[in-house]
Amino acid sequence: MTQSAALWRQLQQAGLVTGEMPMPNPDDQPPALFLRILLGASGWLSAVFFCVFIAAFFVSFLSQASSMWTVGVVLCALSIWISRMAKIPLFVEQFTFACSLAGQVFVVYGIWESSASGQLAAAALLILELILFASMGVRSQRATAVFLACAALLWLLGQHAWLYAQPVLSAAAAWLWLNRLRLYKGAAYLQPASIGLTLALCATIFIALLANSTELTWLRLAPSNWHTQVWVAAALSSLVCLFLAWQLIQRSVQQPQLRTIALLVSIGIGLISLKMPGLAPLCLLLCIGVALAHTRLIWLNLVCLTLYLLLYYYSLNNSLLYKSILLCTSGALLLSLYALLNRYANTLAAEGKAHA
């Protein structure tokens, strides 16, 4: 089942639409993949040359590099104006996207150079991203604005509070994905917000893993009471994910026996997440993607889970023998759990057909 067909079925179940899914218009079909790659690459390349030309032109007239923020404001305003046009081609969309990112870099660089304050630059970036989110006409640019706004907020929080952003981002991203059909009136803004929050959550999880690595202690990403804050943030994330997982189970699982098993598995993942912070949000988003038949969300979380396990494996401060035993034991438990759940689900399905 394609993503559009699955979405139409979910809209029918919610009582928002009736009848068969309308046939797509051939004129509305996107170009082939290789054409989109070529158009996107050419748009970015053109934007790079354009931004370099604009920056060089303004620098030759400006006495100080700190005044570069004016160039950034002009580029951001130009990007907003172009993105609000109706049905802009892919080349122009990517060109605008690159110009917008360059303008944001110029604004932050200019403010940082003029004030020598990282906090002020982060606050300016946060305000700028909120303005771009509200003003941009392209969803991908709105999603990027949400992601950069979260990054600016984490920058403002500093070492002593950024860990607690993980449970907040987990709650916001998962809640938006779960209620994306109910909030269809604000889909133009809420759907990009869910994508941006998901990317920010993944980035936060990987930053926490990198901070836990002994080889990267020179970066000083972790505060002094690192282990206590990690455990508290992991516990909050597990509680949030368990609450949202129960909502997903109630919507997607019909058999009471399977609901109980799914709840027990969710509790188990939440407990494991106390030792492996960040595992519960990734597993929850993967389950939401499967329930919504959202292919991109599924693949994103599969890739993130693979990278997470690799980074977690190398961040363990133990011998190779201990790591090998841990991997073998975990793999055996997961395979046994999969076989048990698969057999139980097939048994319940066979009983349902017999009663029917």
Can you put this structure into words, describing what you see?
- This protein has about 350 residues and is an all-alpha fold.
- It is built from 13 helices and no strands.
- Helix 3 packs antiparallel against helix 4 (about 90-115), helix 5 (about 120-135) packs antiparallel against helix 6 (about 140-155) and helix 7 (about 165-180) runs parallel beside helix 9.
Write the SSE topology.
Layout (H helix, E strand, L loop, with lengths): L2 H11 L19 H27 L9 H15 L6 H26 L2 H18 L3 H19 L7 H14 L8 H26 L13 H27 L3 H20 L3 H14 L2 H21 L4 H36 L1
* Alpha-carbon distance between the two ends: 25 Å
Quaternary state reads single chain
User: What do the pLDDT scores average to?
Assistant: 77
Largest sheet: none
Proportion of strand residues = under 5%
Rounded to an integer in angstroms, the radius of gyration calculated over CA atoms is: 24 Å
Count the strands? 0
Helix content: over 70%
Q: What is the global morphology?
A: globular
Please count the helical segments: 13
The unreliable regions are none
Q: What is the total domain count?
A: 3
